[in-house]
Amino acid sequence: TREIQANVFSHPYDFDVWDELMAEDPQKLAEEGAAIERKHFKDIAELIGVVTREFVIGGYRVHIANLPYTMTSDAGHALAKGRPFAGCYWDTPDGRVFSLRSQEDGIDVSEIAKLYGGGGHKHASGFRVPFAQLEKEGLA
């Protein structure tokens, strides 16, 4: 479950640690993970209000939040509610990465991502734009 994953991934990426966690009661792991998930979604809800701005992507004016990659999937889905799509971005040494999300009734974001050399799935896709091209693409 998500809760167990949240618990496991709150520990160091170490096989010895993971072996110890495998011996734990799954119910305990899930309960501890539920608190981590609650905090994760609370943080996303608060941050969306202060780090979101509008971009024109693929001809659509969309809400895009500047968030770390660890939050982008859940934040993108939250932002996409009631919209054709939404997304998040974060900067890397190689450029700005955009992660797009849409709801079941939203558009195929893989088609939008392809416009910028990216790809993915119908409701979860992404692309990277080198910093030198951000202004040209209107994504600065």
Structure commentary:
43% of the residues lie in helices and 25% in strands. The chain has 140 residues and is α+β, with helices and mostly antiparallel strands. The chain folds into two domains: 2-48, no CATH class; 51-137. The protein has a six-stranded mixed sheet. The longest helix has 26 residues, at 26-51. The model has no long low-confidence stretch (mean pLDDT 96).
Question: What is the topological layout?
Answer:
Elements lengths: L1 H7 L6 H8 L3 H26 E6 L2 E7 L5 H9 L5 E7 L2 E7 L7 H6 L4 E2 L3 E6 L4 H4 L3
Parallel strand pairs: 2-3
Antiparallel strand pairs: 1-2, 3-4, 4-6, 5-6
Helix pairs in contact: 1-3, 3-4
Brief digest:
This protein is α+β, with helices and mostly antiparallel strands. The protein is built from 6 helices and 6 strands; from the N terminus they run H-H-H-E-E-H-E-E-H-E-E-H. The protein folds into 2 domains: 2-48, no CATH class; 51-137.
% residues in beta strands? 25-35%
Main sheet strand line-up: 1-2-3-4-6-5
| Main sheet overview | 6 strands, mixed
How do the SSEs run, as a string of H and E?
HHHEEHEEHEEH
What is the terminal separation in angstroms?
Answer: 37 Å
Give the low-confidence spans: none
Q: Would you tell me the overall average pLDDT?
A: 96
Q: What oligomeric arrangement do these chains adopt?
A: single chain
The helix-and-strand class reads alpha+beta
Using brief descriptors, characterize the structure shown.
140 residues; alpha+beta; 6 helices; 43% helix; elongated
